[in-house]
């Protein structure tokens, strides 16, 4: 038996949840947006909107031209998280959920007789039926079944919406030959460009290269892993650690000025610091990112002694902000990130001041914000943006409504 993974991928997840909750939106082109403004972008599009070419990242103004009659709704992230947890519980009641890959994807483990093709297909049908019954008819899924998670993911992408595709090890890698390399999970824009430079454009081209050649192309063990993945080999899951904690916010038309942009960044920094402490990390680098309405971009980072201290981060924010280009440009989006993490056990602490008092203070502040909400206690420098920087769902980060508000 070679089947090990059944991957459940919800189609147009955010938009589908909205259509499930609001029957009037069913069957209609729909865009989910961070705010109602023509200059912002769709963070999700319904199946019906995608038929007109609207997708994630499409500007609202362009979407209106591409799809006359499209409706827009402001994202409700807590709603999507609630549906996610209910969906995971439903799937897990039928087949063990091995890993939650993102807000709209989960990898399920096939063992024993369940790895038999007939049994695996039967499980997939039962999963689809249970989700329709327990979560809602609008929450359609594409399910892929394969000898490893990578192949199952690839299979789930082959038919959308509402697909069910099985790929067995005996069919590999030939079954994938006609796919462009960009269709493979983990191959982004930059890697696609690198592969094209080596005359690798399809999986057929990829499969023709040796492990050593792919090691050279990837610049490391990633090439060996891809060699095995496309052949359906079992790949041991490598432990992954949080590499960064980041937040961003699109500014509304009335708030696209320096004063508001800085206040929002201040709010995002305080929010990220709370997440950092919850995760038990200390950050050694902070990055600032600005996107302008004309399409331009500016970013800068700064090293710092690893810390969890919100005040220290706010000082770094002021320093980075002071170095932004002074040429007058309208800021559309702001973002910040912490990285270069140090774990609790590897943190040495300051040589010049005791951290015990500040740690106790932040523990109390974080507890108050969890109990009473995001505006219970905050540094006054974020007062103008106290209602901004709310909860957002990243591709592989599912927020905790208690601490990510």
TrEMBL record:
| BP GO annotations | DNA repair; error-prone translesion synthesis; SOS response
Domain of life (superkingdom):
Bacteria
Q: Which UniProt keywords apply?
A: DNA-directed DNA polymerase, Mutator protein, Nucleotidyltransferase, Transferase
Q: InterPro entries from the entry?
A: DNA/RNA_pol_sf, DNA_pol_Y-fam_lit_finger_sf, DNA_pol_Y-fam_little_finger, DNA_polymerase-Y, IMS_HHH_1, Rev_trsase/Diguanyl_cyclase, UmuC
- In this record, what's one Pfam family? IMS
Q: What is its EC number?
A: 2.7.7.7
> Which parts of the sequence belong to the UmuC domain?
5-188
Q: Where does it sit, as one GO cellular component term?
A: cytosol
Q: Name one GO molecular function term.
A: damaged DNA binding
Instruction: Name the protein family.
Output: Belongs to the DNA polymerase type-Y family.
What is the protein name stated in its UniProt record?
A: DNA polymerase IV 1
Q: Which organism is it from?
A: Usitatibacter rugosus
The beginning of the lineage is:
Bacteria, Pseudomonadati, Pseudomonadota, Betaproteobacteria, Nitrosomonadales
Protein's gene: dinB1
């Amino acid at each position: 038996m070679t089947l090990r993974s059944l991957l459940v991928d919800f189609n147009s997840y955010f938009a589908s949840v909205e259509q499930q909750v609001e029957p009037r939106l069913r069957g209609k082109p729909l865009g989910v947006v961070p705010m109602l403004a023509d200059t912002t972008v769709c963070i999700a599009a319904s199946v019906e909107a995608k038929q007109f070419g609207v997708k994630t990242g499409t500007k609202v103004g362009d979407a209106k031209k591409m799809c006359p009659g499209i409706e827009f709704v402001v994202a409700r992230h807590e709603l999507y998280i609630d549906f996610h947890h209910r969906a995971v519980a439903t799937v897990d009641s039928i087949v063990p959920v091995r890993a939650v890959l993102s807000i709209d994807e989960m990898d399920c483990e096939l063992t024993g007789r369940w790895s038999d093709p007939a049994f695996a297909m039967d499980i997939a049908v039962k999963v689809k039926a249970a989700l329709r019954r327990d979560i809602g008819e609008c929450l359609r899924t594409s399910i892929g079944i394969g000898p490893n998670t990578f192949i199952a993911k690839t299979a789930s992408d082959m038919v959308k919406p509402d697909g069910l595709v099985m790929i067995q090890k005996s069919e590999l890698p030939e079954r994938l030959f006609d796919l462009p390399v960009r269709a493979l999970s983990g191959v982004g824009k930059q890697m696609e460009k690198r592969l094209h430079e080596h005359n690798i454009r399809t999986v057929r081209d990829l499969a023709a290269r040796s492990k050593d050649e792919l090691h050279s192309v990837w610049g490391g063990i990633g090439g060996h892993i891809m060699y095995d993945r496309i052949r359906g080999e079992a790949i041991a899951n490598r432990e992954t650690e949080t590499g960064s904690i980041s937040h961003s916010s699109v500014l509304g038309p009335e708030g696209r000025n320096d004063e508001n942009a800085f206040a929002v960044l201040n709010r995002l920094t305080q929010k990220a610091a709370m997440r950092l402490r919850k995760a038990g990390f200390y950050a050694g680098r902070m990055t600032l990112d600005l996107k302008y309405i004309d399409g331009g971009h500016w970013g800068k980072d700064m090293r710092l002694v690893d810390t969890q201290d919100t005040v220290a981060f706010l000082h770094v924010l002021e320093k980075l902000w002071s170095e932004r280009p002074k040429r007058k440009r309208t800021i559309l989006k702001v973002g910040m990130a912490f990285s270069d993490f140090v774990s609790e056990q590897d943190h040495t602490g300051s040589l010049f001041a005791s951290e015990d008092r500040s740690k106790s203070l932040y523990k109390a502040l974080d507890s108050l914000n969890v109990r009473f909400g995001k505006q219970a206690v905050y540094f006054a420098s974020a007062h103008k943006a106290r209602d901004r920087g709310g909860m957002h769902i990243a591709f592989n980060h599912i927020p905790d409504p208690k601490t990510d508000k």
